[in-house]
Design a protein that fits this description.
By secondary structure, the chain is α/β, with parallel strands linked by helices. It contains eleven helices and eight strands. β1, α1 and β2 form a beta-alpha-beta unit.
């Protein structure tokens, strides 16, 4: 039996996912394919490398370091999440990503990105995270506070803009069971946002503007689709048992721990049902 894992993004709400995934590691729950979006990709890759606690550890340690996430970085580099520090200093020097274990896991890992010129999602397969760090960075590059990431002749931003919960992409893969980890509670629905900012920032990319303006509808339609699949017991969803009191770019370290702990607690609540789902 092959198991797929879909990981929603959401900035620091992704520490909820990190808690769930670390608890999954403790229970030795194995998966064959992962599709992560934004923080879901950036934190979720530590599941494949079996680095329990890494996502929480480096975020707590560097959260208020101006080299990591700061207005200073946005002003001086165009990226509120500093490219050099967050994506090169931390994973290569300060809290090293275990590339060898990631490779040996044999998990097919995909990072969702949004092609700015087409407004469509793409799902690059991450074979070597160290080599493909820019694909991972692109997946988490939040519009308006991040520069467009250029990879070859293509331009990318946050995967969550075009496919926040890539359940349909996972269904295309060779898996028998699908676990979905969300970062919003059951009653959440995304609201329409102003169309002015996309026009101002991305006037050269009309397809991306359209993508931004339609995001709330696409997201809510995906939630409806998930609900249908969940009722039919075709997927297993783990979601926050309550609203997560944390900002997308949270600066309060204690809130990171709180959200992470909720993830662990919610996983334990769902563990028995999850094991039953995986047995069938």
């Amino acid at each position: 039996m092959k198991v797929g894992l879909v990981l929603e993004g959401g900035g620091m709400r992704g520490l909820y996912t990190a808690g769930v995934l670390d608890a999954m590691l403790d229970e030795n729950i194995k998966v064959n394919s992962i599709i992560g979006v934004s923080a879901g990709a950036l934190f979720g890759i530590n599941y494949a490398s079996k680095q329990k606690g890494r996502s929480l550890r480096y975020n707590k340690k560097y959260l208020n370091d101006k080299r990591y996430i700061s207005l200073k970085s946005l002003i001086t580099t165009g990226n509120i999440i500093n490219k050099d520090f967050a994506f090169y200093e931390i994973p290569f020097k300060l809290d090293v990503f275990d590339e060898e274990t990631f490779s040996k896991s044999k998990i097919d890992f995909y990072a969702t990105v949004t092609n700015v010129e087409t407004g469509k999602p793409e799902y690059p397969k991450i074979i070597n995270a160290s080599v493909q760090i820019e694909e991972l960075r692109a997946s988490g590059s939040i519009p308006f506070v991040s520069k467009i990431v250029k990879i070859g002749d293509k331009k990318y931003l946050d995967g969550g803009m075009s496919d926040s919960i890539p359940i349909k992409k996972m269904q295309e893969l060779d898996v028998d069971k699908i676990i979905v980890i969300l970062t919003r509670p059951l009653d959440y629905r995304k609201k329409k946002t102003s169309s002015l900012l996309p026009k101002i920032f991305y006037h050269n990319y009309p397809k991306f503007i359209e993508c931004c303006n339609n995001r709330y509808k696409n997201y809510n339609n995906t939630l409806d689709y998930l609900s249908k699949l969940e009722k039919q017991k075709e997927i297993f969803v783990i979601r926050p048992s309550k609203s997560l009191n944390i900002g997308r770019l949270e600066k309060n370290v204690s809130k990171l721990q709180e959200v992470y702990d909720i993830g662990i607690k919610d996983f334990k609540t769902n563990l028995k049902a999850l094991k039953q789902y995986l047995k069938k």
